[in-house]
Design goal:
The chain is α+β, with helices and mostly antiparallel strands and 101 residues long. It has helices at residues 25-42, 57-62, 94-97, and strands spanning 2-9, 11-13, 19-21, 46-50, 69-78.
Length: 101
């Protein structure tokens, strides 16, 4: 099993030590995390997302800069048990969730 801590970088720092703005950091990290989860599932791994509250303790125990980075998500990853059963959840019909006028 693996535990992946995902952080959002609020702003970068260039070679001169000046702040560099990050545009849409939460959205970018969310999309990247979704792609990571899809790739892990494709590789046969199971995932579980966890967002403890508060999460700022992760900066300290992982040695991440508090002024630039913020914890976003903990992702638990591992191989599922051989006898693992996934519930059969049916999707709603498209017509029941979308309406075009």
């Amino acid at each position: 099993p693996w535990l992946i801590a995902i952080f959002v970088e609020r702003h970068g720092v260039d070679e001169q030590g000046e702040k560099q703005k990050r545009y849409y950091p939460d959205e970018s990290v969310g999309i990247a995390t979704g792609m990571l989860i899809a790739a892990l599932h494709h590789a046969g791994l199971a995932t579980l997302t966890h967002t403890p509250s508060p999460m700022k303790f992760l900066n300290e125990i992982l040695g991440r800069p508090k002024d630039r980075e913020r914890p976003f998500l903990l992702l638990v990853v591992g191989y599922p048990a051989v006898d693992c059963q996934v519930p059969a959840i049916e999707r709603l019909p498209f017509e029941s969730i979308a309406q075009f006028v």
